[in-house]
Specification:
Low-confidence stretches: none
CATH class of the largest domain: Alpha Beta
CATH architecture of the largest domain: 2-Layer Sandwich
Number of domains: 3
Bound molecules: adenosine-5'-triphosphate
Structural class: alpha+beta
Strand order of the largest sheet: 3-13-14-20-17-16-15
């Protein structure tokens, strides 16, 4: 999708009920979004597919659902208290605040405000360090606060439960723990729709391996995760690429990291990071908690701290990428047509049913009966609130693969018109064969 189509795309998402601005009724909150009826359905599909693929289908990965608020020491051990910071600077003229690493620099101390283009001299405008974590007081008494933090990534919930999971599941290394959940970062660079939010969702796996097997496991996971986007999310190969981090970009403990990037309307950006984190996390949690988080290999009679490979994906960025990838705009008989070429496993509905004339009770009854039947086996929607042309346009814009129209002839020939979203081809299909017809043409 081209950059100039982004605002039309965002308005489609709002108009059709994929996303709404957070607390919009009261003027909204920056970088907070709510998923509407269709967005909630599609987001759940993405999470279900991921969970099914990694937790349900595999024997070597188990699931977890850990809490969002966590102990301060968790983040002392993980390094987030010390190091999860952005360095910010204020523009002296327009008073807006920016991440210093994201704005233009010229000369030794001079930066330029991206908005009003004023020079920012860091000898006068001192940059300030700002921790991205949301801190919250968990004490009932204000004078004696007890602080907890909203997790900035789901991963820490996995590390602190490593021993609990190991002891209750009796898994042997290599094995993984997978989790889907909310994470919170008080991001300063905002905008770009749902790409960077303060409240977002992640799908993360921590895969624990023997140190000597870590590099090959890392390489495996990079390939596996790329394949997931191609196969299960229907993202085209030309919209995805791998970007390996150079040594200057790697966290000090990480051995390797590859970003899976998507061609967003504003350019190539990270969709997921796959990192080889060595033994950093378990070692540090072991040190700060003073608990032994090592693993005993009973075959080799050897104790060691496992290495970990972390494929860390954003649900919202995946959602955004899937929609961008599916967005199509074309001209049909001199008029623009917009449709979403979504996989049917991701589309909010797999079929829509309409009566051609809503004033004909027999048609409405037949259409509703067909709808109730279809709905037993797939997500479907019934609509009779507009003319047929508008109903088709509505379903195209939300990516419904097939529309089924019931007309006067249907009453006598027991056939309906099935229209294909992508080709717009229409075919008469016997009512009794509709489900079979749709399942033979899965997208
Ligand atoms: P970026 O460099 O874009 O800020 P990151 O490297 O900080 O991302 P990670 O900490 O690796 O991101 O988080 C893993 C994944 O979580 C990212 O690839 C992204 O999909 C998602 N994610 C991270 N921060 C946000 C955010 N603020 N809003 C939405 N998704 C996010």
């Amino acid at each position: 999708m081209a950059e100039d189509q982004l605002s039309t795309f965002v308005s489609l998402c709002r108009r059709r009920g994929f996303l709404f601005g957070g607390s919009e009724l009261y003027g909204g909150l920056s970088s907070i979004w709510d998923y509407g009826p269709l967005g909630a359905k599609m987001k759940k599909r993405i999470k279900d597919i991921w969970w099914d693929e990694y937790v349900e289908k595999r024997e070597d990965i188990v699931g977890l659902d850990s809490s969002i608020i966590m102990h301060e020491d968790v983040f002392r051990a993980s390094g987030h208290l010390e190091g999860f910071n952005d360095v910010l600077v204020d523009c002296p003229k327009c008073k807006r605040r920016f991440r210093i690493d994201k704005i233009e620099k010229f000369g030794t101390n001079l930066y330029r405000c991206p908005d009003c283009k004023t020079e920012i001299d860091t000898r006068q405008q001192k940059p300030r360090t700002f921790n991205l974590m949301f801190k919250t007081n968990m004490s009932a008494i204000e004078e004696t606060p007890v602080y907890g933090y909203l997790r900035p990534e789901t991963a820490q919930g996995i590390f602190v439960n490593f021993m609990n999971v190991l002891n209750t599941t009796h898994k042997k290394i290599p094995f993984g723990i997978a989790q889907i959940g909310k994470a919170f970062r008080n991001e300063v660079t905002t905008g770009s729709f749902i790409f960077r939010m303060k409240e977002f969702e992640q799908m993360e796996i921590e895969y624990f391996v023997r140190p000597e097997e870590a590099m090959s496991a890392y390489e495996h996971w990079v390939k596996n995760r790329l394949q997931f986007y191609l196969e299960h999310m229907g993202i085209e190969e030309s919209n995805l690429r791998l970007r390996e981090h150079g040594p200057d970009e790697l966290a000090h403990y990480a051995k390797a990291c590859t970003d899976i990037e998507f061609r967003f309307p504003f350019g190539w950006s990270e969709l997921e990071g796959v990192a080889h984190r060595a033994d950093f996390d378990l070692r540090e949690h072991g040190r700060v908690s003073k608990k032994d988080l090592s693993y005993f290999d009973s075959v080799k009679e050897e104790r060691f701290v496992p290495n970990v490979i972390e494929p860390s994906s954003g649900v919202d960025r995946t959602f955004f990428a899937v929609l961008c990838n599916a967005y199509r705009k074309e001209e049909v008989k001199g008029r623009p047509r917009v449709y979403l070429k979504l996989k049917d496993t991701l589309a909010p509905f797999r079929a829509a049913v309409f009566p051609l004339l809503k004033k004909e009770p027999q048609l409405v009854e037949l259409a509703k009966n067909i709808f109730y039947d279809i709905k037993k086996s797939m997500p479907a929607v019934y609509d009779d609130t507009a003319s047929i042309g508008k109903l088709y346009r509505r379903q195209d814009e939300i990516g419904t693969p097939f529309c089924i129209t019931v007309d006067m002839e249907s009453l006598s020939d027991r056939k309906v018109t099935v229209r294909d979203r992508d080709s717009m081809a229409q075919e008469r299909v016997e009512i009794d064969r509709v489900e079979e017809y749709l399942s033979e043409r899965r997208k």
